[in-house]
Amino acid sequence: MTGMAKVYHLDLDRKAIKGAAIALLPGDPGRTRPIAEAVSRAYGTDFSLIASRREFTTCLTEALGRKVLVTSTGIGGPSTSIAIDELAQLGVTHFIRVGTTGAIQDDIKNGDCVITTGSVRLDGASTHYAPIEYPAVADFSIVAALVLGAKEAGVRFHVGVTASSDTFYPGEERSDSFMKYKLRRFRGATREWKALHVLNYEMESSTLLTVTSALGLRGGCVTGVVNRGSTGKITANALRTGTENAVRTAVAAIGFFLEDGYGV
User: Fold this and answer.
1) 133-166 pLDDT, tens digit each
2) In a domain, 1, yes or no
3) Does this model's pTM top 0.85?
4) Active-site residue numbers?
5) How does pLDDT run across 63-78, given as a tens digit for each residue?
6) Distance (Å, rounded) from C-alpha 149 to C-alpha 41?
7) CATH code (residue 146)
């Protein structure tokens, strides 16, 4: 991508992002502005809304003298791959998903954060960038910064492997789906992932981590726990607490990441 041409879906060009090399990626467009505001408050800077099209809403802010983007990806791998690919075309090199998740392990509570080191690739979008044998792994420097960020923010956190599914209901073996019949491939899946010490379910990390690694970029993921297991409703309080803690962790992590450089 050269000159002032806009990427198709995000409606952004290089001039609009002002040299930003790092992007925070919530799924929900409605979380873009609050995350940008949180970065601005933490680092004494301003923010602005610079584009909004379809599920992709982008704000530009700043931390420690470096421009930072906050771009929503929508739900799932396909739209996440579009956001990463188009941001990469504009020069962004570091990507941190900031979202929500459902816990699998018993010791993980609502409001805790999960910092993903690698993802089980239960998606399809990532296979368009690398074969299924290719691992979905997080960048070590981003993981380290997120750990420091969680400690700085006083957030209880867990570090480990995430199961990343294309679907919210059958792929996460949820019992509250309209489809009561479960395909054989998903029956007992949660029990199996739990036995293999997988921490949580979500829907974007395997795409993000595979795409960033395959393209020579850096990716990471922090999610706030909003429910546990494959049953139970997501309450307003759990959603608020999990979201806030993930954002607090990511905002604090930016400072550690930028202070140490890491090529940004």
Assistant:
1) 999 999 999 999 999 999 999 999 999 999 999 9
2) no
3) yes
4) 9, 86, 174, 228
5) 999 999 999 999 999 9
6) 16
7) 3.40.50.1580
